[in-house]
Design a protein that fits this description.
By secondary structure, this protein is mainly β. It has six helices and 13 strands.
């Protein structure tokens, strides 16, 4: 009893000790020093299986089995020339490595006749080895983008995104271990497509690309619409040293969805396809995609350096596609409608050093 009384008395008489027992508030902010350079690596891996498939307009309903795996990797070198108010005002980005590969296998049975197909596809980008400058334009409230040195293909720059730092997940003020907050879902789109549209195109295609749907090969990126909706929760779970650096670990739970109209992209892709002689004609009427993702992961933030150190997010993705085509084969015209739903495990990882 005497010992307990002494401890309680010490606590009452020692404000310093009481303050020491309280969790320490931490400021987690984007604030790399001007001139800081980071090499960032992003990887996206997915394994999807066909859940359902319907086709109308052909007079038959094929049975289909399909699996698809995708692996995409992006390595950039970012130099923060100047930083202000939690964001770069000038950033130089070099695309060191850009690409990926996909594989698809499909078995389709029509009126008892089975047809097995498989395809491997490599992706490439014109940004490989290029340097792009992002300069903040205060009047337009957006970044001006330009190749360094200048190049003519400025249209490629339109859909690039400057933020590859996961800044949207950060809290607005000081937080303590155990605190939670709600990031703005609308700002999280580039979690799933880091860097924006990187002009990835197939290195190799063949006649099977058309029948198997080459758009599916990169659908995890293509299916993400401009408007991401849903909910996300962030929680500061720990502040500790990682390799001698004070780092915050933010746990993320996310459940989002979006839709995208891919009609124009599909039509442009069709223009590049050479149909076999006598194959007739194919006209794309519409291509609509829906994307859903539910998962969780951790963002590790270098508090002193003011930038992310690592990011990992794993979960379940679902992609729905609806495609309408007008086909003319030997004078026989058909309006085909295909609907697919694929789902499977997906992971997004990133590191900066």
């Amino acid at each position: 009893m005497k010992t307990t009384t002494l401890i309680l008395t010490a606590l009452v008489l020692s404000p310093t000790l009481l303050l020491a027992l309280k969790p320490t508030a931490t400021r987690i902010a984007f604030a790399p020093a001007a001139g800081t350079s980071l090499t960032k690596t992003f990887e996206n891996k997915a394994s999807l299986t066909l859940d359902s498939f319907t086709m109308t307009g052909a007079g038959v309903q094929p049975e289909m089995e399909m699996t698809m795996t995708t692996n995409q990797k992006l390595v950039v070198s970012d130099e923060y020339v100047s930083v202000k108010a939690g964001a770069p005002t000038k950033l130089l980005r070099t695309f060191d490595e850009l690409g990926g590969d996909s594989s698809m296998s499909m078995k389709m049975t029509i009126m008892g006749q089975a047809n097995d197909q498989s395809q491997n596809m490599r992706m490439k980008s014109e940004f490989q080895g290029k340097k792009v400058a992002f300069t903040w334009n205060a009047e337009k409230s957006e970044f001006d983008k330009a190749f360094e040195p200048e190049e003519e293909k400025v249209d490629l720059l339109k859909e690039l995104a400057e933020d590859m730092d996961f800044r949207a997940y950060l809290p607005e003020g000081d937080v303590k271990e155990g605190d939670t907050w709600t990031p703005d879902v609308a700002k999280l789109r580039h979690t799933f497509s880091p860097g924006g549209s990187l002009a990835l195109v197939p290195e190799n295609t063949d006649e099977a690309s058309l029948s198997m749907g080459a758009d599916e090969m990169s659908s995890l990126t293509n299916a993400i619409g401009e408007k991401l909706e849903g909910e996300v929760k962030a929680k500061l779970v720990a502040v500790k040293d990682v390799d001698g650096r004070s780092c915050a670990t933010i746990h993320i739970e996310i459940k989002v969805h979006s839709s995208a109209d891919m009609t124009e992209q599909a039509r442009k892709a069709m223009e590049k396809v050479e149909l076999p002689p006598g194959a007739g004609s194919i006209e794309i009427d519409h291509v609509d995609m829906e994307f859903k993702f539910e998962g969780e992961g951790d963002l590790v933030w270098d508090i002193v350096g003011g930038h992310f150190r690592s990011f990992d997010l794993t979960g379940q993705a679902t992609i729905k596609s609806e495609q309408g085509m007008k086909i003319d084969v030997g004078g026989r015209k058909m309006d085909l409608e295909q609907k697919r739903e694929m789902s499977g495990s997906t992971s997004y990882t990133a590191s900066a050093k």
